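Human: Here is a favour to ask of a fellow structure person. Comparing notes only helps if you start from a blank page. I am asking you to supply a protein in sequence and structure-token form. Write it directly below this note and I will take it from there.

Assistant:
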Amino acid sequence: MIARIDMRALALLALLTPLPAAAQTFGLPQGCTAYVTIQSRGCMVSHLFTCATDPPGQQRRADLDESGVIYLGLIDAETQWLESAGPADGSTERLLPDPADPASLTNLLASGRDDFAFATRTDDAFDTVFRGHDALTGASVVIDGVTLLATTFDVTASDTGGGLLWRTTGAEYVHPEWRTFIAGTRTTTTPDDSFERDATPVAFIFPGEEGFLSSTPRHDCGVMMSKAAAFAAVDSGERN
């Protein structure tokens, strides 16, 4: 059952929380606790956090670029994408009940591959059908002292009539204990265009360490990435 969480309110709170100029700290909603900040390539910093009002196993992610919060997502313990919000336009997208083939991190870790098929609905009642798979490569990598499992993925998004909206393929990472995917490299194609993005993690920052909950991305900033910005929801959304 999908938790009834107002991601628009969360987005607004994140955007309106006063940020001391010197600290530049991301303001967590009340009752929420972050466990790691990830500085990534592609001028992005992400914060993974849980909230006391959420059901057990659910967690959230906030992505920020130089302009501020660009994405907020909610997943469950199996990494099902339950809800996402785009603070720039106030849009919210939610998982529809009874997925045809729910995403399952447990299945991926046990068998090395997980296929999924599910649908989401936006506030203005636009439905999107997602189909694809994740697969472990068998390799593990250590980035800034954190061990991650390498994966590949292929996902397509279509309208309810079967028309292709976009397809994304790439390589990313999974942290079994955190039960979340972490972005890597990907190529997204639409019927009219395509772009590539590298959001590979560079640094993992934990509570008490300098830079934890920083709102300022550190890597590859100042580079023109108009196509990536245009597809920010696509680039972030299919995981969490």
Observations:
- The chain has a mean pLDDT of 87.
- The chain has one domain: 7-17+26-237.
- The longest strand covers residues 127-143.
